[in-house]
Model the fold of this input.
Amino acid sequence: MNYFPKNLLAVALIAICFSARAQDKIYKTDGGVIEAKVKKVDPAAVIYKRFDNQDGPEYTILKKQVTKIVYQNGTTDGFEGDAKKDASGNNSGVKGGKAAKSKYGDNIISVTPGAYTAAVDGSMNDVGVGISYERLLDKRGHIGLNLPVLMSFSSNKDFNSYNYYYSYTPAPITYTGSYHSFFFMPGIKFYPATNRQMVRYSLGLSLFCNFGSEPMGVFDNNASNPYQTYHYTMTGLMISNSVNISATKHLYMAIDLASGIPFSDNRHANSNSALEILLGPFIQFGFKVGYRY
Done:
């Protein structure tokens, strides 16, 4: 009749072993381990009670501070990937175990279907089209290398009112030809916000070089053939402001407003008197749409 104490001892040992395992363990990113009774796992946090005080208050720990949870039945939930994403800045808000905000691409190819360039002195009132390439240089996308090209179509009324260039009126010749110019504007763009934002403001600084054509009679009022084409160049500095919108992961749009100051300008040079009058400051407005990757 001594089998009863032996069976009772066996039951007690099994109960002790089960009790030792009947706890959840929360492993933290700092290496600590919490012995707990997990009550709930939210998208961003873990709610639990201390195992040694299960009648006490509930505690909360952020999932980004947890690498894994080992439950009393031996199953495991891992969160190490979420913690790494949060540390790298890719997962600022967790929703359904996925990043609420994604990182957009560092390369942007865009076209400018509509642009307008106007000089303060009235000698330039040109519409145009363009293309550009931009490359974000740092991890958070605060600095971008911008390489735009713009083709402008000169307005004949600029030439027919070329008393801007010379001090007499009226203009003796009426021009009806087709003239155009190219703006090359390599520069740097600075973004205060990070690359994860859908809408970002940028401030740009660039050099510009403008190659264009106009009637010879505008350059030289005594030209033997005033309708002959004269080719000119302008160089200077440009400061731009733009609102940049990543409508989707790949669809990019922007509104640009820039101001240019020429350093050198032979478009306004009078060949007879060797008098060079720099073009005054000009503004340039444009709308961009493109592909981001």
